[in-house]
């Protein structure tokens, strides 16, 4: 019955998400990871250390994080394997590491807020992006929301699912721990360039296959979205993905751009400093609230394709 864990986790998390009462009571696993990452960073990433020493300290911190997650999740999985319906509990625990429902809700909130006013849209998008929202016009807010939706479809849904299929609960938890570490310390600034190097590189390695798989899923999903182009989705991903500074993030972003006839990316502001970034796609750049909703439709059809593929894979494993 282990083969049913991945498709059932996808279906249940998409419908229910992570219960708010549970989050209020015990928190969220990602928050627990974040606390351990912060604990180590404060103590290990000190100004007295040289660059190589910071790299080593970051590697030690990452190893400690992964060791803790591995011990806990393997222990839980071992205990659950002794129980008659332990696989169902493992499936429910795995839903905590997927972000289908919350991602869709957060991006839809940007569309709704942008319909009210630009200031409301900026406030809503500030919860899902790291760039300076006050520097964004209406099109900038919409593009930021769509870009986040595309990239997070990969590292928030497809990649966790991928490692759940391969390695069960330990796999999805370990992936999420690395991804959380990368988001917190994998930055190219003076404080984290060396200390976060190991987390950033490992995150790149783990997302290499899922990012390209996401682009494929988006391409297939285009067949179920009126006006979307599967041929342009894949062609744009192959042409433009390499422009991104990340070896992976450009794949889902470019696929979304090509599929919907958008132009994503371009210059943006971080902490008041303009950063000149490449554009993905050659289509419409002046996006608005309705374009966010169109992107959400493509996102949901992509989730449908992923669920269907997961169910088919489970059936094949069960038959064999």
TrEMBL record:
Which keywords accompany this UniProt record?
Cell membrane, Cobalamin biosynthesis, Membrane, Transmembrane, Transmembrane helix
Task: State the membrane topology.
Answer: Multi-pass membrane protein
Highest taxon listed in the record's lineage: Bacteria
Instruction: Please give the PANTHER family that the UniProt record associates with this protein.
Output: COBALAMIN BIOSYNTHESIS PROTEIN CBIB
GO function terms (MF aspect): ABC-type vitamin B12 transporter activity; threonine-phosphate decarboxylase activity
Q: Which gene encodes it?
A: cobD
Show the InterPro entries listed in the entry: Cobalamin_biosynth_CobD/CbiB
**One annotated Gene Ontology cellular component of this protein:** plasma membrane
Indicate yes or no for the key word Transmembrane: yes
Which pathway is this protein engaged in? Cofactor biosynthesis; adenosylcobalamin biosynthesis
Q: Which family does it belong to?
A: Belongs to the CobD/CbiB family.
Name the residues that span the membrane.
56-76, 158-178, 302-319
State where it is primarily located: membrane
Q: Which GO terms fall under biological process for this protein? A: cobalamin biosynthetic process
Query: Where in the cell is the protein located?
Result: Cell membrane
What is the documented function of this protein? Converts cobyric acid to cobinamide by the addition of aminopropanol on the F carboxylic group.
Q: What is this protein called?
A: Cobalamin biosynthesis protein CobD
UniProt cross-references to Pfam families, sorted A to Z: CobD_Cbib (PF03186)
